[in-house]
Amino acid sequence: MPKPILSDARLSPTFPITAVDEYGDSREVFVAGERPLTLKVDGQEIVTLMTLGNYPEALTLGYLRNQRLIDSIDEVIRVWVDWDKERVDVTTRHGSGIQDERMQGRTVTTGCGQGTVFSCTLDKVYGRRLSSLQVKQSRLYDLLKAVNDFNAVYRRAGAVHGCALCHDTQIMLFVEDVGRHNAADAIAGMMWLDDIPGGDKTFYTTGRLTSEIVMKAAQMNISLLLSRSGVSHMGLELAQDLGITLIARAKGQHFLVYSGAEHIEFDAIPSIPRSAGPVSRKVSA
């Protein structure tokens, strides 16, 4: 089956503006772009996403995949973005849009820019358990060093989140967008297009590990999540139910394993003394 026909409608992710600094001096700086993109399937309006516009076609496919609104990439004939109309049109082989039962029960999440989760997504996530991925502490440190070379839009303009698909210490895909859920969906779309498996991959994000991000990882069959930010309680509970390892507050040689510590081989314990504070027990490899 041929791949879908895609437009090539990437926008510049940043824009130069003039701002005044704390000294009263004018400076040229960059701000992150943000554009609405209304997603339609066979003419049926599904959702309006706020995005940088950096990977709109992949974002569209990833959103449809992660929300389980379309089951197979083979169902999609065409994904076409028109920024003048602020719209992306998806054409399917059956031409009848999304089934009504899949469109019911939407929940607006706490994701940046507000994400959306459909009840059918929740139903399909629960009841499955992912195969765990074993990882060495030393390789996590190497991965954190590698990811520092990315985040180009953030370094230039701030106000964005980045997500990466990683294999061991290799950054396979890296996407920045105004919300981490958009960046995650774009990666999911790229994986879907190129048939990239998730079982041996790590998903990295600069943002919080909320229930929405955990669900997206589960849809991509990824069982190891790494974040420089924190974890929400619902995200933790869902990760525990699904057998997903959550590692957060990860920067430099510091990290906290919130779920799945048994899958980490602690082979690079920092020589710097532990900061003062209560410690219940040391986790051994």
Topology, please?
Blueprint: E1 5-6, E2 14-20, E3 26-32, E4 35-41, E5 44-51, H1 56-66, E6 76-82, E7 87-92, H2 100-103, E8 106-108, E9 116-118, H3 119-125, E10 135-136, H4 137-147, H5 152-157, E11 161-167, E12 170-177, H6 180-194, E13 202-205, H7 211-219, E14 224-227, H8 233-242, E15 245-251, E16 254-259, E17 264-265
Helix pairs in contact: 1-6, 6-7, 7-8
Rounded mean pLDDT score: 84
Termini separation comes to 46 Å
Helix content: 25-40%
Strand-residue proportion:
25-35%
Largest sheet: 6 strands, mixed
Shape type: globular
The helix tally amounts to 8
Could you walk me through the main structural features you see in this protein, from its secondary elements to its overall organization?
The protein has 285 residues and is an alpha/beta fold. 26% of the residues lie in helices and 32% in strands. It has eight helices and 17 strands. It has helices spanning 56-66, 100-103, 119-125, 137-147, 152-157, 180-194, 211-219, 233-242; strands spanning 5-6, 14-20, 26-32, 35-41, 44-51, 76-82, 87-92, 106-108, 116-118, 135-136, 161-167, 170-177, 202-205, 224-227, 245-251, 254-259, 264-265. It has a six-stranded mixed β-sheet with strand order 12-11-13-14-15-16. It has a five-stranded mixed β-sheet with strand order 1-6-7-4-5, covered by helices on one side. Strands 2-3 form a two-stranded antiparallel ribbon. Strand 4 and strand 5 form a beta hairpin. Helix 1 crosses helix 6 (180-194), helix 6 (180-194) packs parallel to helix 7 (211-219) and helix 7 runs parallel beside helix 8 (233-242). The longest helix has 15 residues, at 180-194. It is globular and about 60 Å long. The chain starts with a strand and ends in a 20-residue tail after the last strand. Residues 107-114 and 280-285 have low confidence and may be disordered.
